[in-house]
Amino acid sequence: MQDEWTAVDRYLTDLLVPADAALDEALEASAAAGLPPHHVSPNQGKLLGLLAGAVGARRILEIGTLGGYSTIWLARALPAGGRLVTLEANSDHADVALANLERAGLANVVELRVGPALETLPTLGAEGCDPFDLSFIDADKASSAEYFDWALRLSRPGSLILIDNVVRRGAVADPTTDDPSALGIRRLNQRMADEPRVSATAIQTVGSKGHDGFALALVGGRS
Length: 223
Ligand code: SAH
Ligand code: DHB
Ligand code: MG
Known about the structure:
This protein is α/β, with parallel strands linked by helices. The chain has helices at residues 2-16, 21-32, 42-54, 69-76, 91-103, 117-126, 144-153, 180-194, and strands at 59-63, 83-88, 110-114, 134-137, 160-164, 198-207, 210-219. The chain has a 7-stranded mixed sheet with strand order 3-2-1-4-5-7-6, sandwiched between helices.
């Protein structure tokens, strides 16, 4: 099955997601530096950019930068004067991301904050910045529910919150799972279900990254 999923992703990507020097170089540099291949796929990256453009995002928050691949997709969707803040715990990853963002011409658009997100988010909140129009949660899955709480707190009605990796090869649907990532995602999903300030859904996907999925919560949306 995986071979077919990968072949279809290749077909769709070849057709709809043209090769791009900065994005391709970001993946090459990330692999060369030994980063894990946990970036979104090209067609997922384009979806992130399209969603950011569709909601007219001027301020974007990303939690989990890795080599900055998804960051580039999101930052490119910003209008002139737009800003993206991305949070990364691992300073080696952050160094690779900064070089990739520089090469993509986005160094002045993106602010990368290094440190565990549960430490950098309170700082960000205390600064009293304008709300984020779109948040993309893609760091350690065990803390996704806490990241969702922060993203909601830093949002406004109409903001979009996207969360990657909410299916984990189906582990999320196993109520007896003891996998910390799956448990974290189950807590996140319960939180979105219980939270009256958002309307949320989640979609499972197959593709070059296997069987996974993403969730989307609209702040102030009607359930
Ligand atoms: N969004 C990226 C992929 C992120 S992979 C892309 O699609 O291109 C997940 C990243 O989250 C890794 O770089 C990892 O170091 C980072 N991470 C893990 N725990 C974290 C934490 N507590 N705070 C911030 N980042 C964290
Ligand atoms: C993995 C995939 C991701 O998209 C991510 O953010 C973290 C880990 C993985 O395949 O393990
Ligand atoms: Mg991910």
